[in-house]
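subagent[fold] <- orchestrator: predict structure for attached chain, return tokens only, no commentary.
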Amino acid sequence: MKLNATQVQQTLNQMDAQVLPDDHPAARKLSELFGDHTFFVDESGLKVLESTEPVAAEAQRGSVVSLADWNDGKFSSLKPHDPAVTGTVIVLGQSKQ
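subagent[fold] -> orchestrator:
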């Protein structure tokens, strides 16, 4: 999911992570590898949100999916793995129809 600024803030209020800005040097490569998403990094690695609700649902939710883990203790490189649902669900608010 590509999130707007409000959705990014709602996510950060519910998850201890940092958003990777679209102009970050790694953002283009990550989009090539994983698709068009808003990317988040936390102490364990790289995360995105995948929609868990039908478009017609009143409240939009996103499931946190882990795409890569930190390869070292310095948080300097990531090791991709198969997407893994973390079990965390983020409430993004009311969908606009």
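orchestrator: received. Logging for downstream: The longest strand covers residues 78-94. Residues 5-92 form one domain.
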